[in-house]
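Duplicate of #3305? Posting structure anyway:
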């Protein structure tokens, strides 16, 4: 079977660095689903306004090397333990396919590229190909009080975030809040713990730099 993108994702995050490790953990992160010309048909979205969430099936387009080994090292475990690739949500998979749940903010039927779906909480990079969209249905897709493997055993420690005056002056309040949510999730590679190291990531058209020391991110431009 051959599959082709039905849409591509627009995001303020234009590189893999800084992308949330899971959908939904940075709820303020906004993005748009822009359909390919042959799929820009409002009839294909009829009824979508009745759903709060969508499932996106998409591709890890920047992973040039698919998983070639049966195990991976999840960041949540510090990168020190191996788990089976199919027991993780690692981005390095045999077929490079991702699955994310996103919030529907609104649908713009009047856009020049319309219809465009505006969503929140996505963990997709700018330009990511989307292969399918399905509605999220609570009575079948939500399973409360279930086991979640090693994710239950190892909590993720969020970081405090301090933004420089230049960031405060140049970004809108919504952009600042989103940036703080992203940085609080510690986007560094799991094996980097050097407080003197300066990291960089693009966000909303600007290059953000930051350091991490004693549980605090200091971000500047």
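Output from current build:
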């Amino acid at each position: 079977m051959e599959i082709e993108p039905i849409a591509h994702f627009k995001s303020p995050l234009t590189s893999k660095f800084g992308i949330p490790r899971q959908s939904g953990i940075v709820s303020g992160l906004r993005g748009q689903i822009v359909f390919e010309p042959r799929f820009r048909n409002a009839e294909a979205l009829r009824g979508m306004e009745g759903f709060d969430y969508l499932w996106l099936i998409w591709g890890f387009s920047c992973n040039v090397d698919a998983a070639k080994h049966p195990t991976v090292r999840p960041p949540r475990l510090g990168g020190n333990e191996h788990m089976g690739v199919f027991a993780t949500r690692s981005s390095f998979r045999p077929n490079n396919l991702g699955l994310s749940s996103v919030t529907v903010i609104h649908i713009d039927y009047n856009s020049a590229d319309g219809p465009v779906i505006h969503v929140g909480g996505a963990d997709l990079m700018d330009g990511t190909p989307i292969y399918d969209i399905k509605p999220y249905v609570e009575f079948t897709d939500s399973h409360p009080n279930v086991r979640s493997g090693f994710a239950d055993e190892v909590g993720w420690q969020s970081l405090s975030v301090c933004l420089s005056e230049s960031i405060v002056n140049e970004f809108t309040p919504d952009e600042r809040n989103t940036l703080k949510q992203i940085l609080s999730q510690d986007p560094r590679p799991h094996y980097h713990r050097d407080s003197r190291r300066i990291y960089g990531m693009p966000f909303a058209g600007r290059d953000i730099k930051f350091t991490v020391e004693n549980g605090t991110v200091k971000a500047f431009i």
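Confirmed duplicate; merging threads. Helices lie at 138-141, 150-153, 165-170, 173-184. The chain is about 10% helix and 30% strand.
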